[in-house]
Design a protein that fits this description.
With about 950 residues, the chain is an alpha/beta fold. Among the domains are: about 350 residues, no CATH class; about 190 residues, Alpha-Beta Barrel (Anaerobic Ribonucleotide-triphosphate Reductase Large Chain); about 140 residues, no CATH class. Helices cover about 40% and strands about 15% of the residues. Strands 5, 6, 7, 8, 9, 12, 13, 14 and 18 form a nine-stranded mixed β-sheet that branches. It has a three-stranded antiparallel β-sheet with strand order 21-22-23. A two-stranded antiparallel ribbon has the order 1-2. Helix 7 links the parallel strand 8 and strand 9. The two termini are about 30 Å apart. The N terminus is likely disordered.
C-alpha cells in the first residue's frame, strides 16, 4: 500500500517520506459524498428511574450506522456543551476534528513525501472511520482536536518505590489519570513487607496497607464524575513476604459484604453502603514465575524474600499458596495471574528494564511509567461476499492505521512527564481487532475448534506482522525509537520468535491458507527490513476489550470474545427496539449448506429459545458453530483459554479477557485453568465464576450462590405487611353450541398425512379439536381420539389456547420435517405443526407475536418493511434492519414481553401490596435472561440503569456505551 521515496525533508524527517497509495477512497470524491446522511434525535432515558439523562436532536450520521452506534457517539464523543452553538452535531465534525489533527501532525513531523500523500492519507483514514472499519480508543475521540490536553492513551503503567514520597506520588498520579477517565496499573513489590524492619527499627506497614489509601482515592475520584469509573490494576510478586495477605484481601472483604448485607445494609454495586468495604476499585494479580509454577507441580517449598536485600524471610509450600490463590479467585474472582517469565521472554526492551506490571485489563504490558494508545479493526468488514477473508485490504488497513497511531505520539500530551518521556522514547502502540467471534460464526467455524483457532492466529499474526513491517519502514523515514539502539539485539530476537511462531501455523481450510501465507511474508519483511532500518516502535499490538468503540463500529462481538448470545436488541430510528437473531447466523447457516426453508425454521427457533439445541433440521455437529459466552450452549472454560493461547504468540502485549466459569465450578478447576494457561504460554489469566460476588446486582435470584437474596428484604426498621386471601377457583365448562362453525385442514408433515377439524364458539374462540391419523381402529387413531377429547375439554374449561401452543410447539419426534403448509414450512413433529396451525387460525396477532408465530405473509412483510404488523409505523428502514448479505432470510422477530401464565387452580387477592411491575428487557443481557430463565451475572449501568454485558475483563452497557473501566 505504501512505500518510502525521496522527498523534501520536513521537521523530524531524514530526507524521505511515505507515499500513500489510494486503496479505499475514490480519487476526486470525498468519502462523505459517497454515502447518504440523515438527521436523528438522540434521547437517552434511565430505564430504572424514567429520567431523561441526555437529549440532543438533529444529529447527523450515515444512514447505515445503527441507532445504537449514533447514540453512543453522540453522548460519549461529541464535544461542547449540549445546547450551545459550539456543540458538535455531526459525525463529520468528529471525524474531521481527529483526522485533520493527525494529518497536520504527520506533515509537520515529516511522515509524507508530498502534499498529495498527506491528502490521500486524510481521505483514506476518513473512509475507514466513516465506514466503521476501525476506531481509535476512546481518549482520542475525547481529546484530539479540542482545547483539552491531547491525551491519546487509554493504558498507563506507573511505578512505586519503597519510600513515603514515592507512595504519596503514586496516589497523586493515579488521581490525575482517573480524573481523565483512564486507568493505570502498577507493581507494589518494591515496597517492604510487614515482616521487615524500617531503618528506624520499627516494622514496615507493607504494601497491602497502602493499597487501602489508593483504593479510597480511586473510589472518591470515581464518584466525583469521571467519564467512567476508575480502573486500576495492582500486582504483587509471588515471592513477596506479604503475598498471602494480598491474595486474601478481596476474599476477606467479600465475607464482610455478606455479613453487612445480611444485616440489612445496601451492599449492591453502587449501593450507598458498599463504600464501607475496601479494595473494590482494583483488579488484583499475582506475578508468578516459572520457578514457582514448577514448585507447584512438584509440591516443593518456595522462598519468600525480603525486598531490601533479597534474603529469605520464609519458606512456604508452593502448592498450598497456589491453592489459596485459586480459593480466593473462586470466592471473588481475584486475584488473576500474570506469568512473569513468559512476559519478559517476549520483551523487546530488556536492557532498559523488566516488565513488572500491566494496565487494568492486562493487555498492555511494558516498561514502568509508560503508556499505550490503541486502535482496533472490525474484522467482519474484511469478509468478502464469497466468504473469503480479504487479506490484501486487511494488511493495507493495518499499515495505514499503524501509521496514524505512531503520528499521534508526536503531538500527544501525557499525565506525567515520566510517562511522556518513556512513551516518546519507546513509542508503544497497540493495534488490535474486534468482531472475531462474529467472523468465525459467519464462516461456519466454531470458536472452540482447531479451524477457529487457526484462523484467529493467522489474522493476529498478519496484523502484528503488518504493524512491525510499517514500523521498520517508518524507522527509515523518521528514525527508530530512541531506546532501540541499546535493545536492538533483543528486539530482533523477539521478531524472530514471532516469525517462527508464524512459520509453525498449518492451514486447516481454504479460508486460513492465504492469511497464513501473507503473514509469513510479512514477518519475512519485518526481519529483513528491521535489520537495516531498526524499528520505530517498541511494541505493536495487543487485544483490548473494545467496549465503547465496539459499539461505535456496530460490532456484534468485542475484542477476542465469542458471541455473547444468539439474540440481541436493535434500536430503531424513531424510537423503540426490535429483538432480532444475530445477523451472522443466517450467513453461517448458508455457509454450512442449509436451504432457505431450513434457515428460516432454525432462525425462528433461535428467536424463541435463544439457543440452537434441538433446532429443526440443524445437524448436531454444527451446534459448536453457535456456542456463545452465555446461554444453554456456553463455551467450556478451556475453550476461552485455548483461543487465547492460539493468538498470544503473535501479540506484543497480551489479551483483555476473562475465563468464564459456571457457578458450579470447583477450586480445583480454577487451579487447572491457571496451570494450563501457564503451560500454553499465556501472559496473563483472569477467571470469573458466575454469581461469586455479592456486590453484583442481579435481575433475579436464580443461582445457588446468589449475589443477592431472591426474596425482597424490607429496609431496616420497617415491617412489610400484606394481607393475602386465598380463594379456591372452581372451573366452569363452557359448552359449544349445537351448531358451530368449524374448519378442516389437511396436512403433511415429513411425508405423514393427516386431517384436523376444529370447532369454535360463537365468539370465535376455539372450543374443540379432532385429529385423524392412521387407520380407523389402529392404536395411533385411538390415541389421537383420546388426545383430541382431552384438549377439547380443557379448552371448554378455560385453559387458554396460548398455554397449549406454548407447551406443544417445539416438541420434537418423528415424523418431522417439511410440510405442505406455506405458513409453517418446517415442523419438528405433528404436535408442533398442529398447534402452530391452531395459533395461526385462532389467536390474535399480538398473541402469536408473543409466541413467535407468524404467517408467510407477515414474514415477507418483515423482510420488506422491518415489521410483522399488518399496519406498520415507519420506525426504521428495512435496509437498516436487514443489513446482511442474506436479506432473503428472516433474521429476527419483533420483541415481545415475556409473560408467565399460571394455570387456573387458585387465585390470590392481595391487599396493601404494590403491584409487581411486568418485567421487560432493555438490553441483550436482559433479553437472554428472559429467554433462558437464568441470570446474567453483570452489574447495572450507572448511567442508564440497564444490565451491562462482559467485554474483555470488564463490562460495557449496550444502552449508552458506558464501561466499567475498559478503553
Amino acid at each position: 500500500m505504501t512505500e518510502t521515496v525521496s522527498g523534501a525533508p520536513s521537521k523530524g524527517a531524514t530526507g524521505r517520506g511515505l507515499h500513500i497509495e489510494r486503496v479505499f477512497s475514490t480519487e476526486g470524491v470525498h468519502p462523505y459524498d459517497e454515502i447518504t446522511w440523515e438527521r436523528r434525535d438522540v434521547v437517552q432515558t434511565n430505564w430504572k428511574t424514567g429520567e431523561t439523562v441526555f437529549e440532543q436532536r438533529g444529529v447527523e450520521f450515515p444512514d447505515f450506522w445503527s441507532v445504537n452506534a449514533s447514540t453512543i457517539v453522540t453522548t460519549k464523543y461529541f464535544r461542547g456543551a449540549v445546547g450551545s452553538e459550539v456543540r458538535e452535531q455531526s459525525l463529520k465534525q468528529l471525524i474531521d476534528r481527529v483526522v485533520k489533527t493527525y494529518t497536520k501532525a504527520g506533515v509537520e513531523h515529516g511522515y509524507f513525501s508530498a502534499a498529495a500523500d498527506a491528502e490521500t492519507f486524510e481521505q483514506e483514514l476518513t473512509w475507514l472511520l466513516v465506514h466503521q472499519y476501525f476506531s481509535f480508543n476512546s481518549p482520542v475521540w475525547f481529546n484530539v482536536g479540542t482545547e483539552a490536553p491531547q491525551q491519546v492513551s487509554a493504558c498507563f503503567i506507573l511505578s512505586v518505590d519503597d519510600s513515603m514520597d514515592s507512595i504519596l506520588n503514586w496516589y497523586k498520579e493515579e488521581g490525575f489519570i482517573f480524573k481523565g477517565g483512564s486507568g493505570a496499573g502498577l507493581n507494589l513489590s518494591r515496597i517492604r513487607s510487614s515482616k521487615e524492619l524500617l531503618s528506624s527499627g520499627g516494622t514496615a506497614s507493607g504494601p497491602v496497607s497502602f493499597m487501602r489509601g489508593a483504593d479510597a482515592s480511586a473510589g472518591t475520584i470515581k464518584s466525583g464524575g469521571a467519564t467512567r469509573r476508575a480502573a486500576k490494576m495492582v500486582v504483587l510478586d509471588v515471592d513477596h513476604p506479604d503475598i498471602v495477605e494480598f491474595v486474601e484481601t478481596k476474599a476477606r472483604e467479600e465475607d464482610k459484604i455478606r455479613a453487612l448485607r445480611d444485616a440489612g445494609f445496601d451492599m449492591d454495586l453502587g449501593g450507598k453502603d458498599i463504600t464501607s468495604v475496601q479494595y473494590q476499585n482494583a483488579n488484583n494479580s499475582v506475578r508468578v514465575t516459572d520457578e514457582f509454577m514448577r514448585a507447584v507441580e512438584k509440591g516443593d517449598k518456595f522462598a519468600l524474600r525480603g525486598r531490601k536485600h533479597g534474603e529469605v524471610i520464609e519458606e512456604i509450600d508452593a502448592r498450598e499458596l497456589f491453592h489459596k490463590i485459586a480459593v480466593a479467585a473462586w470466592q471473588c474472582a481475584d486475584p488473576g495471574l500474570q506469568y512473569d517469565d513468559t512476559i519478559n521472554d517476549w520483551h523487546t526492551n530488556p536492557e532498559t528494564g523488566r516488565i513488572t506490571a500491566s494496565n487494568p485489563c492486562s493487555e498492555y504490558m511494558s516498561l514502568d511509567n509508560s503508556s499505550c494508545n490503541l486502535a482496533s479493526l472490525n474484522l467482519l468488514k474484511f469478509l468478502s461476499d464469497d466468504n473469503t477473508f480479504d487479506v490484501v485490504r486487511f494488511q493495507q488497513a493495518c499499515e495505514l492505521v499503524f501509521t496514524a497511531m505512531d503520528i499521534s505520539i508526536s503531538f500527544a500530551d501525557f499525565p506525567t512527564e515520566a510517562i511522556g518521556q518513556t512513551t516518546r522514547d519507546y513509542r508503544q502502540l497497540g493495534i488490535g481487532y474486534a468482531n472475531l467471534g462474529a467472523l468465525l460464526m459467519a464462516l461456519g467455524l466454531g470458536y472452540d475448534t482447531d479451524g477457529g483457532r487457526t484462523l484467529a492466529a493467522a489474522i493476529t499474526s498478519l496484523m502484528t506482522g503488518a504493524g512491525y513491517k510499517r514500523s521498520a519502514e517508518l524507522a527509515a523515514v523518521v528514525g527508530p525509537y530512541a531506546g532501540y539502539a541499546r535493545n536492538a539485539e533483543a528486539h530482533q530476537r523477539v521478531m524472530r520468535k514471532h516469525q517462527a511462531a508464524s512459520d509453525d501455523l498449518r492451514s486447516i481450510n481454504s479460508v486460513d491458507s492465504p492469511v497464513i501465507k501473507a503473514a509469513a511474508k510479512a514477518w519475512g519483511d519485518v526481519v529483513e527490513t528491521g535489520k537495516v532500518n531498526g524499528f520505530r516502535n517498541a511494541q505493536a499490538s495487543l487485544l483490548a476489550p473494545t467496549g465503547t468503540i465496539g459499539f461505535m463500529m456496530d460490532c456484534d462481538t468485542t475484542g477476542i470474545e465469542p458471541d455473547f448470545s444468539l439474540v440481541k436488541f436493535k434500536k430503531l430510528v424513531g424510537g423503540g427496539s426490535l429483538q432480532i437473531v444475530n445477523l451472522t447466523i443466517p450467513r453461517a447457516l448458508k455457509k454450512l449448506g442449509y436451504q432457505p426453508e431450513q434457515i428460516e425454521a432454525i432462525v425462528d427457533y433461535i428467536a424463541e429459545n435463544g439457543h440452537v439445541v434441538d433446532a429443526p433440521g440443524l445437524k448436531t455437529e454444527h451446534y459448536e458453530v453457535f456456542d456463545t459466552a452465555m446461554g444453554k450452549r456456553s463455551l467450556a472454560p478451556m475453550g476461552h483459554v485455548r483461543m487465547m493461547a492460539a493468538v498470544q504468540p503473535f501479540l506484543s502485549g497480551a489479551i483483555s479477557k476473562t475465563v468464564n466459569l459456571p457457578e458450579s465450578a470447583t477450586v480445583e478447576e480454577i487451579e487447572q485453568v491457571y496451570l494450563d494457561s501457564w503451560k500454553l504460554g499465556l501472559k496473563a489469566t483472569a477467571v470469573y465464576r458466575d454469581n461469586c460476588k455479592v456486590g453484583q446486582p442481579l435481575s433475579d435470584g436464580k443461582g445457588d450462590n446468589k449475589g443477592k437474596d431472591s426474596n425482597v428484604t424490607a429496609p431496616v426498621g420497617e415491617v412489610a405487611t400484606k394481607v393475602v386471601e386465598k380463594v379456591v377457583y372452581a372451573p366452569t365448562r363452557k359448552r359449544l353450541p349445537k351448531s358451530r362453525v368449524s374448519r378442516t385442514t389437511s396436512f403433511t408433515v415429513g411425508g405423514a398425512e393427516g386431517y384436523m377439524t376444529s370447532g369454535a364458539h360463537d365468539d370465535g374462540q376455539l372450543g374443540e379439536v379432532f385429529l385423524k391419523l392412521g387407520k380407523q381402529g389402529s392404536t395411533l387413531a385411538g390415541v389421537m381420539d383420546a388426545f383430541s377429547i382431552a384438549v377439547s375439554i380443557g379448552l371448554q374449561y378455560g385453559v387458554p389456547l396460548e398455554t397449549y401452543v406454548s407447551k406443544f410447539t417445539n416438541l420434537r419426534f418423528e415424523p418431522a420435517g417439511l410440510t405442505d403448509d406455506p405458513d409453517v414450512r418446517m415442523s419438528q413433529s405433528i404436535m408442533d405443526y398442529i398447534f402452530r396451525r391452531l395459533a395461526l387460525d385462532y389467536l390474535a396477532f399480538d398473541q402469536r407475536a408473543a409466541l413467535g408465530i407468524y404467517t408467510a405473509e407477515e414474514r415477507q412483510r418483515y423482510l420488506e418493511t422491518g415489521s410483522y404488523e399488518p399496519v406498520a409505523e415507519e420506525t426504521g428502514s428495512a435496509a437498516e434492519l436487514m443489513a446482511a448479505p442474506e436479506a432473503d432470510v428472516e433474521a429476527g422477530r419483533a420483541a415481545s414481553e415475556v409473560v408467565t401464565k399460571d394455570e387456573p387452580v387458585e387465585a390470590e387477592v392481595v391487599e396493601d401490596a404494590p403491584k409487581a411491575e411486568a418485567k421487560s428487557a432493555h438490553t441483550t443481557a436482559e433479553l437472554l435472561e428472559l429467554i433462558s430463565g437464568t441470570a446474567v451475572d453483570s452489574p447495572l449501568c450507572f448511567t442508564c440503569g440497564t444490565k451491562m454485558r462482559p467485554a474483555g475483563s470488564c463490562y460495557v452497557c449496550e444502552g449508552c456505551g458506558s464501561t466499567s473501566g475498559c478503553s
